[in-house]
Give the backbone structure.
Amino acid sequence: VASLGPSVMQRLVQAFTRLPGVGEKTALRFTLHLLGDQKPAMEALSLALSEACARLSPCERCGNIAEVDSEGGATCSICADDRRDPRQLCVVARVQDLMAIERSGAMRGRYFVLGRLLSPLDGVGPEELPLTRLQRQLEIPGVEELVIATPPSVEGEATALHLAREFGGRVRVTRIASGIPHGGDLEFADPITLGRAMAGRRTLDG
Amino acid sequence: VASLGPSVMQRLVQAFTRLPGVGEKTALRFTLHLLGDQKPAMEALSLALSEACARLSPCERCGNIAEVDSEGGATCSICADDRRDPRQLCVVARVQDLMAIERSGAMRGRYFVLGRLLSPLDGVGPEELPLTRLQRQLEIPGVEELVIATPPSVEGEATALHLAREFGGRVRVTRIASGIPHGGDLEFADPITLGRAMAGRRTLDG
């Protein structure tokens, strides 16, 4: 159809719709923006994509984004960093979560990215979790604590429980606290969060 | 910084932020989505972008998106279509507007994409409009009517008025109607739209 533009353009619109949250309309807006005198931005994006495709890969140890080295292996900057505390391994659901924890500076150890959470309703059972790879990381000499930082959602809690059962025998398994966020208002907190804040209360040494 | 990921990844995030409405957070979301087992989508997008960059160009006649031909010229499918009514030339602000009119099937003639509207506040004066290129299209034998389909905004009206003054001497200049949209509610229409609906009223032959 003439109104949809040349097929080269339609292919670009379709390619954009594979980005999360991008529908046909947004994809068309991206395409027309770039075609309207933004060719340098277009070339830069094309190059950045092909470069990322060729040179980035999940870290073989933890699943974080890593650059492929000259031998075709991939170890991320955190796993490669000798100054990291070898005693702690922090399990997260997604790379985004790892980044958020890194920004907070609250974890000195290393990470393990699960990539997914248990979700029986969506058909994601324990066999879909990378438990063998996680176990290999736990077997590295010196690991003493598995800090489970999956989100405090139904899926996140189910996953945490499963990991605790699976690995509780060999290392100390801890779970990040759930409660009222910093600056949060008790008045507007949901009952589950309030319940968790109460259940997780700690002794104040005055 | 380790928490931002490898530099190859940072370049991709930066490249995504050049898309309209995409900030750092969305760009990171796009990047991590693609790096999390969406490499085929990533390659497809890279290829579609470089192809579009090399093979698409504004139509030399009307400014619509066109494919570059073997001689390096670019004529869009509408300008190349002999079945188009040569008597009407419809001026629009953006390629998106041309597409919307095409979808409506309400224009049988050809188009001219201005690319911008008069906007004295933003420093866009008449000299920034592609008037010479528009005049060349009006000089094509057979053109009888210039249908101005710029939006009914301050800038769109100012542009329409300027075009009417510039070309009113040589062709019939018409302006698309502004009024209550189909299915619209008078109760919620703004006063300017209601005023235009009244001023643009037509005789009903009963």
